[in-house]
Give the backbone structure.
Amino acid sequence: MNFKHISLIFFLALVACQNEQNHNTTDIQSTVHRDSGVRQPEQNLNISFLLDLSDRIDPNKYPNDAMAYYKRDAAYIKSVAGAFRNHLNSKKIRQINEKIQVFFEPEPSNPEINEISEKLKFNFSRHNISKDLLETFDHNYRTYPTQIYNLAIEDNNYIGSDTWRFFKTNIQDYCVEEGYRNVLVIMTDGYIFHKDTKIKEENRTSYLTPEYIRSVGLNSNNWIDRYKENNFGYINLDKDLSNLEILVLGINPDPKNDYEEEVIRKYWSDWLENMNVKRFKIMNADLPSNMEEIIKDFI
């Protein structure tokens, strides 16, 4: 074998070794990148509840043999709190920066309800997270929501729900924070009414009631055509809620109108989409056992 042949063989072997080395280096780097244990921090979670304490929770006016509606609300809240707790458990202590709180619109006149709602406000961080605080959180969300509803029922002073006004005035200040995944959970039967916020702009309103739905003819099989042709819906608000997710729980349509549920969903969907709500889900007042997984999946 002459010198040229030896040189060529040596050169090819060198190239092959270099390619193999590069290949191995690439594989190692790729493996380190995937399996080094470095993970993006979980998003910080900011959950808000908006509770409708109108007469929809009155067990005498709206009885239900399977389970009273206010008890369903309390169970939904417990499920949300459970999902929040699971989220806390999934994070490293140094990453924890989570919030949860309860709001009403309007505020209840009973000061005891407002005092209890303060006990449902938590701000967890790496500076305060502890076993005692977590036990307090579990206890409070297991106990106090039912107390709030019981007090409201005992007062028997149902002044309605002003959800439209809450969105207009408070939602961005109360429920949306930068650096968080913001979730608003609304407990409502789907209707909105408050005596001090009865605004009507042509066929757009700040309220929705069964009586109003009947009065404008949205209770027949052509309701959707009438809705579109006459521009029905909630009065739109100049809001950008693209950093907010909304879970609406407890829709309970009037059974006298076969199309009531569809009308309610249309009002809410159009309104939330107009405000660029990032993601939303609207659920009926089903039994809590049927709702738990849906709630946890959403959170």
The chain is about 45% helix and 15% strand. The CA atoms of residues 87 and 218 lie 42 Å apart.
